Task: structure prediction
Amino acid sequence: ILTKPEATTVIVLFVMYANLPVVAKSTFGVPDLLAAAFFLLLGIPLLHYLLIRRQPIIVNHVVVLMVAYLGVSLVSAVFSADVHESVDRLLTYVIEGLVLYVLIINTIRTPALLRQAIWAIILAGVLMGSISIYQEVTGAYDNDFGGMAIVEDAVMGTGQVDSFGNDIKRQRLSGPIGEKNRYAQVMVVLLPLTLFFV
Result:
């Protein structure tokens, strides 16, 4: 981590995109705080850039807009009927939105590292997709593969019927995300990135 900050960035992005901290929390009992704070490992490469390489912190227009949105949300939370819930949502936005965004734009500083980061999330998608394909081909819907292949109770139609005229239904896979539509969104983002590299 200390000697190769670029590798730290790539590894953290792979682990986060594959949702491994949440899997570790739900399957192996990793404490909530540790799982939630995993992305803070990006702070080590950031400190390397700031303290050792003496590079400035990057603040772009998006950060300014995110801070402005935070200000508006704070004013809204003050006048909210349920201040506690508003504060919870604000904290989630600050941690999972603003802080994560600032860490990523400050740790991916070169085109080469950007390519490596994209490859890392593509490989995370390959990992998730391979397990889902294996699960679909073998019909192993009762096996969640250590939390990497969650199956919800929902089913979808295939447009086919069996010999008795009944619709053939398939399980909807949720990968390590645990929610079928969010899993699909996480995977579909990888298509243009992969096509770009091809």
Summary: The CA atoms of residues 42 and 104 lie 7 Å apart. The chain has a mean pLDDT of 86.
